[in-house]
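ok trying this again, last paste got cut off
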Amino acid sequence: MSMLSTSVIRGVGEIGPYLLLEDLGPAPRGIAYVAMDSRTDQRALLKIIHPGMQREETPLEILLQETRVLLHLHHRGIPPLYEIAEHDGMLVVAFAPVVGSTLHDLMVQGRRPNRGLLVDWGWQVLEILAEAHAAGIVHRHVSEDQIVVAPDGRLVLMGFGLTQIHFDPLAALPPERSTGGPLTPQSDLYAVGLLLRRLAFASGLRGGRGVGEPRRDPLLKVLARATFPNSAARYRDAREMADALRQAGRAGASAPAPRPVPVPRAAAPARLRPVLARLPARPEPAKAAPEPEVREDRKLAFLLVTTTVVLLLMLIAAGWLLIGRGGTATPAPPAGTATSSMLPRMPG
């Protein structure tokens, strides 16, 4: 939603010393205008709060008290508050207009912050909140619609107290609101963490956890702590979170960017490929050499077999030699058969 973007409603001329120039439409608890202060001839953003407009959870008395504190709070990231007055039963809040574009408008236009700019934006918002929290003011509505980027690059956080002129559907309520707990400075830190996470994801910043992805960005660790459901586990204050954010920014800037490694199909995962490439090729398993005792036993067995075979051959050869010298042996007669020499001779 761009500021100063709608036309003037005809029939509305002035409220007290303010000449109405442009109607910005409904605002939380009232209506917002661009006006000219006839006393100083300077422009102002005017918020008119009608009696009985009590739609928000935070009581009007608390917001009015915080708005009065803004009269004495001077910070380049907070629009100066000119005055709080009453006119015909209506509450009139006048503060300085802001020149620039909201983060919501920049995102709609396709602008995406890089990592360094994201850290710088987060640090600026947290420095503004640290100043406000120290004065006892809680913002409660930190979102893209409430942050304006000025032409010189500085951020301006609108919407403190009763100066909120935009509805912010992007602002997510912290978990403590759903349980009925009060909104505290840690609630603002939760909103900043969610805002930076949305911007980071829109810019393509991811935290690697899987195989082949870069290591988890320390910036995302800071945002994870800021958006922890338990408010006691978040940062103690905005300055501590701002310091952690700047340290994460420096750590991410000094770390070398991971080189993209082309991974062919059916290849090893990217994280394992450099390790596999450094390992030498696995050699073929060599046959184990026999132990000395095994070799001696095999030699003895071979000698015994050889000796036995030689002795058998020698015995066979000796037998053939004996048979050859004695001639053919005459077979013995069968038992019980008499020979001629053994028979008695007959008398002649």
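PB: full thing came through this time. Strands lie at 14-15, 18-27, 30-37, 42-49, 81-87, 90-95, 101-102, 147-149, 155-157.
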